[in-house]
Amino acid sequence: MLHEDFFKVFPGLTRAYGQFFITERKGPKLDGYGKTIRENYVDTLWKEHLDGKTGLGVIPINKENKCKWGCLDVDDYSVDIEKISKQFVKKNLIVCRSKSGGAHIFIFTKNFVSASSMINKLKEIVKAFGFVKYDLRPQQTKLIDENDCGSWLNMPYFGGESTDRYALYDGQVLTPEHFIKWVEKFSLDALESLDLTFIKKLNKSNEILPGGPPCLQDLLSKGALGEGSRNNGLFNIGVYLRKKFPEEWQDKLEEYNDDYIDPPLKPREFTTVLQSLDKKTYNYKCKDSPINSVCNKTKCITCEYGINDDGTMPTLNSITKILTNPPQYFLTLSEKKIGPLSSKQIYNFLDFKQVVFENLDMLLPKINDKLWTETVNDLMSRVIAVEAPKDSSNEGRLFDLLERFCTGSTSSTESEDLLRGKAIIQDNITEFRINDFMEFLDRHRFKEFKLHEITAYLKNLGATHSGKKIKGKFTNTWSIPSFQVQTEEFKQPNINKEAYE
Length: 501
What we know:
Largest sheet: 6 strands, mixed
Strand content: 15-25%
Radius of gyration: 30 Å
Strand order of the largest sheet: 1-2-14-11-12-13
Number of helices: 17
Structural class: alpha+beta
Number of strands: 19
Shape: globular
């Protein structure tokens, strides 16, 4: 079956998968939100995907931190996918059209390889092509723990043969069946055997502005800056040159004016730009044309001569939001995942800086509040929501403690024990006093909810409040249906006493 074939060539983490819900289209880019589902990744999900019913995202890294496929997600919609496909004829790479019209370049291996080696090979492909805007899958070298779900990729061939997410080979669209045959034929025996010398560089902008902002690299990769972009364009180039060539930037600016401004600014206009740059404070005009339309602050702060004057930030790859109450966050930083983080540890840079130092032994450079706010907002626009395990939320912990209070050593079947602080189980109903339960929570250091929040939670569970006399004393009680109590004893291991004599 075709869905079984796709499941076979796209193995991944089995405890979760992804879905993307489209809300609107902005140009070539599809806006929406992604969600990670904490359910088993099984082949029937591929049937739904191929039938065009529910889109599927697969997490390439498995629980052993290995994978059999990797993907370079090129976030540049001007890239000619057909042209790339012609470079890959009889090679071990294939390109697919993404859901937004970008390029997904895949590598497949016959055997599982480490996620770190796959990431390194994908970076070699990035360098060979000269791409500036991109993302990688897998995104991290290893999972943090058994609850970590990694990062997923939207799969090709949503809708089967009617798809707009198809693979191309030598400029021709492959059917789903032909794609499977290609994978079977061109999967690598070893990543080391992949020779990339055949690749023709598509983007040489990083050779024009090494270490420069991605916005300028993107613009200059398409040619010289023309009318309407010349003055601001040259000013931004000048900011880069001041950072990279502090002693000779003025001479360099003349060269760039001749080579990358069309037509070059005349002496009077050039002098005006020069004088604007020759001040104590200067920086890129991110909010002005022509760079505002291609601004990428999250990427820019990682560039050596980017927007941040106090050092280079590591790459902020992605952020995941665990839907607990309150929410928790995991952030992938230069292929290393850190977390869980609180909201404050994300939006407050000093708190974030401390977490990174404690977890990754890395001291981040200074960054001003405004720039960090813009960076976090850009990052959060791509946040992936993950369903939380029931017992990991505050409500889940409260439910677990309530069950322990009502069934453990703090429970009884005798009514008078209610006055001794115990929960009473009679006729499948459990009664207790709220103050006794609050003291139990305090002993277990659970202080996330106040009294009125806990009573509201109990009402949502179906608990009722009443009063009764016990031993002549009136007391307020709460009643809930009894929890199931363990009736079988734990099996005791046999101890060989002779071994200790």
